[in-house]
Design goal:
two-stranded antiparallel sheet; alpha+beta
Length: about 120
């Protein structure tokens, strides 16, 4: 294939990223897919220079992980904190109801303190 790719699987996905003045010939392959897996070779011909070495690059495309993944710590935290909050809330409501009964029953008592 000759750069730029005018047809084929890399059409409109290859961008030049080299610096010729520094002797760097590089390209970027955009929007890679699983079908792009493979070994790629690059040959740069710069007459009258002759080079027998053809460097290659192995490209391995993997699926992107989800940006948010529940870790073991997060799951354990949720499994410990959620029930704890529920228990504390139930206890507080029960205590409020119980002490409300005591305070209301103590106001209606028939016992009086008399000095004597």
């Amino acid at each position: 294939m000759v750069f730029p790719a005018l047809s084929g699987p890399f059409k409109d996905r290859v961008v030049w990223n080299g610096e010729l003045e520094k002797g760097n010939a590089a390209i970027i392959l955009k929007n890679v897919t699983q079908s792009d897996n493979g070994t790629f070779s690059c040959a740069v011909h710069n007459p009258p220079d002759v080079s027998s070495e053809m460097p290659s690059t192995a490209l391995t495309v993997t699926e992107r992980e989800l940006p948010f993944r529940l870790s073991v710590v997060m799951v354990l935290t949720i499994l410990v904190i959620a029930p704890s909050l529920l228990v504390v809330t139930v206890l507080l409501l029960w205590m409020e109801k119980t002490f409300a009964v005591f305070t209301s029953s103590s106001k209606n008592t028939s016992i009086e303190a008399v000095e004597g």
